[in-house]
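Re-running the complex after MR caught last week's input typo. The corrected sequence lines follow. Everything else is unchanged.
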Amino acid sequence: MYLDSDRRPTLTPKLALRIAILGGIALVAFSVVFFRLWYLQVLSGDRYKKEAENNQQREIKVEAPRGEIVDRDGRVLVDNRTGLAVKVTPDKLPRDPLKRRDVYRRLGRLVHLRPKRIERAVAKQLKALPFSAATVKQDVSDPVVAYILERQEQFPGVTVERVFLRQYPHHTIGAHLFGTVGEVTKEQLDDQRYRGVNLGDRVGQSGIEYQYDRFLRGIDGASKVQVDALGRLKRELTVKQPKQGRQLRLSIDLDLQKAGQQALAGGTGRGAFVVMNVHTGEVVALGSQPSFDPNIFSKVIRASDYRRLQDPANGAPLSNRATQGLYPTGSTFKLITATAGLQTGVFTPDTVLFDGGSLTVGGVTFKNAGGGGHGALALRQALTVSSDVFFYQLGRDMNGTLRLQHWANLLGLGRRTGIDLPGELPGLIPTPRWRNRLFKKHQTDRPWSVGDNINLSVGQGDLQANPLQLAVAYATIANGGNVLAPRIGLRIEDSSGRAVQELDAPPARHLNIRPEFRQAILEGLRGAASASGGTSAKVFAGFPIPVAGKTGTAEKGAGRPDQSWYVALAPYPSPKYVVAVTDEAGGFGADTAAPMARTILAKLFGVRGDKARKGGPSD
Amino acid sequence: MQNTLGTTVKDFREPQPRGVLWFDPLLLLAALGLIAFGVVVIGSATADDIPGDKLYYVYRQVAYGVVGVALMMVLSRFDYSRAREWKAGVYVAMIGAILLTFALGFSARGSKRAIDLGFINLQPSELGKLLLIVALSGFVVDRVRRLGEAETTSRIMLLALIPAMLVVAQPDLGSGMVYLAVAVAILFVAGTKWTHFAALGVLAVGAILLVLVAAPKAGVHVLKDYQVDRLTAFMHPTDNPRKQGYQINQSLTAIGSGGKSGRGDKATQTKLNFLPEHHTDFIFSVVGEEFGFVGAALVLSLYALMIWRALRILTMSKNLFGALLAGGVTAMLMFQVFVNVGMTIGIMPITGVPLPLMSYGGSSVLVTFMALGLLQAIYAQARQTARAKGL
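Corrected-run output:
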């Protein structure tokens, strides 16, 4: 039974209108959807397709190993090993901050880092590189890795990755040359030098690693992978293989470097040495004592270790005394005084001066180091016996001019040598202007006086120089006037040792030094190492290679032992190498430094079974 | 059989004359096309979802489809007019089922929407869509002479608002909106005055402002924060592409990347799970990515066909109750299609409304087929009446 109201036999106009409106709404809605789809799919399809591609593709950096560093004979000095780094992938960490801190706490206990520190480090790295894993610790031991991998549920988001770490097979040998590798800094990224380097990449931060970074640095590879929405790897799409950096061949000779460092270690424990080719400026060996094992830098170094390596009480092992030392040079400076005096006409090679054992100027008496006088002598003899009074007179006579300072500077003191090792210090040549300014500022007790120039003439007083600078100065006299920029990098090679690029020697400054002056100086030095009465003649007695050399004993103030110096040129008469050695507390030059130089020269020239003897205490 | 007016009504259950279809074939075609295409899309979208069981969702959706078609056939033979007398019972049953969800329902992703019946997770809020249509149609027919009174409109809207509020609390915002849309559509077909609709519109705008703007300021949170975020995210999807805007952006990328003819097997947005809910709420995005504009247009055409047939059945209905039922079902389908598709293409807020017959899910599939069965019943009985009248 149907109610009357139920009946609706025909379609009323009112209902028809309403149905039409419903149909109209549907039509409009369908049209809107169709146009929107047309816009999305047909008009913007390509753009969205790209977006979809980007969505599922990730580029994973494949780190390239740095190039190896080899010595002049191709022996490996620095290579790579793979280490295991603990990293944190942020989007897989627990979202809950408390749980996240738990993971950091557990991890911190394992790798001996404070949780706060991990948290900060991760936050910092993520700010810079939002979607990549942040490194917590660089080099982790296998048991720790195994512990983490076996307990992944306790360490969500913690991963272990293989990384390349620098390895130094010879430990302390050459430690001061290589420098360190570290993550690129924000400031460096803005630098042209680091074009192509990305945040998180590791680059040379000091030493050779810094200097030749653009060759040593490899080209990272990339593996394009497909990931799903949770970031899980689905498959590898393309791989660009990483390219190892170039091999760098140094002019260093590993055996000589070793011998030099051993010789130095036999002294008082603090000193430096340089062996350089006087014609090419190639540094064959360069060392500083105390040394350190750079392998500790390939791990994340502990703050306490770092402090120890910089602590002056330990001899600051990290500082390179060969290029950063600030020392008075003692009598080794006499070569410079002689050159200055000769070149400026203050005296000639044959000018005879009298050495009565002391010289009194302005009421102050300057004595010979040995005490006694050498009598009347000319330049050659003065160098041979190292007469201080002879050079005092030159220093006195050149006071009032800047001839001595000027020539010291021309010969390479008071300025950087330009060696391809960053961090060298220029040192100081004292001038009246410098001292008077200090005096005005009350930083010293007296103004410049003639005594300062007299002190400078024998390498005492305020002079600050390092062994490398002396080596350059001596090489200039030996090679005919070329002030060389020493260098360690020889050439860039591919991994099999074939040359890719020769590292040309930087241009040398030429000084016009008259040959007869040079000859006279060299003869004087030769006498010192060979003639009877020569300061180092006893040290080199019986040495098969003819050596010319100068001892130096620098006074370092009351209560402190003298610094021992020796600079040798060999083989005489046409020297090929200069060897400069210093021991900070070695006393007389002939006592400590000269025997060290002999050991080094013996190695350099292949003298077998050589035993250096100590010379007499004359300077 | 004679009714009170003396016209002869042939019982539709009598054997039908040969050569006459007692169901709308186009409506059936659209429904079968959609469920079939839906199964194909679910199959490719979920192939990797459950390891070792590529066809997990396919089997289940096919089963729901088979049961759904059977229910549709049964209902198409049902003398729907009888349901009018059960309106109160239907209404109470609906409210009861929804309340039962709070007691027995299990939580999925923070909302309690379904009751586990063993073979199916029944969502009373889905079934409620159909039950509400039946109940409201009945109530409206009762008051058809008093349609001009505001009281009628208020009562009907209140009857819809009660279950709507209940399901929004589950929270199932989408179903709540469907309820209101259905109620408005039924009133609209019945012939409620325009002024009433205008008043309802003002009320709706006021309510939206109250819920989204005023109440949170006063410290009352009617909607959960995520619901508000989702509702408003479509207006500025790039603001927070990794959070609120994530679904919309991934969906737009999926659909857009499909281009003219789709990416087929290379549909990475779907296969690599960038697209969330790719077999349920965002299945249209999968269609867009895998089959492109062509596939999306095909699906929309099938819906257009379905809605056209539904509207036609509405005009044919032998009585007002049937017309109101047809109007409610039409509104339910239209609203769900446009809100769902609109959400995937970024012109509607994300509200968790399934795409009828395409989204995976037993409750939705069964209820949609039952609704279509009702339409078929209205069609069949209208044809019969017309035949009896000699039209």
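None of the earlier attempt is carried over here. Chain B has a mean pLDDT of 86. The longest helix of chain B spans residues 283-316.
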